[in-house]
Amino acid sequence: MKGSILLANMEKLGIDPMSIEEVFISHAHFDHAGGLSGFLNANKDVTIYVPHSIRGVQGISRVVSVSGTLKIHENIFSTGELDSIEQSMANEPPCSKTSASSVEPLQGIQCQSPLP
Q: What is the Cβ-side half-sphere exposure of residue 22, based on CA atoms within 13 angstroms?
């Protein structure tokens, strides 16, 4: 079963897959997303943040395809997809202002330190 290593490690650590509410996938390489299908078989009630280039994630509560800078939660941001390859997570705002909604792109905002 795909994802069996991830699920076995979660069990050893005492982590119930149903306790996970959100998953952030930086890019589609196997070492970052290889256990995802097994995890989703155990918990379909999650929100998954994926780079815009990743297609075909289905059968779960919510897939957020991230193409630009995005505020996920207070002080949790995605850079958006960089060079059509991957996204990065940051715990400080990449720009001086943030969106009022937790899943709205930060458009038209001057960044204090521009993203690469």
A: 8
Residue 23 phi/psi, 5° resolution?
A: -130, 135
Task: Report whether pLDDT(18) > 70.
Answer: yes
Cα distance between the two ends of the chain: 38
Q: What is the largest CA-CA distance in the chain?
A: 47
Whether the pLDDT of residue 21 is over 80: the answer is yes
Pairing of strands 70-73, 76-78: antiparallel
**61-78 burial: b if 16+ Cβ within 10 Å, else e:** eebeebeebbbbeeebbb
Residue 76 tokens read as 């949790």
**Which has more confidence, 72 or 103?**
72
How confident is the model at residue 93, as a pLDDT? 56
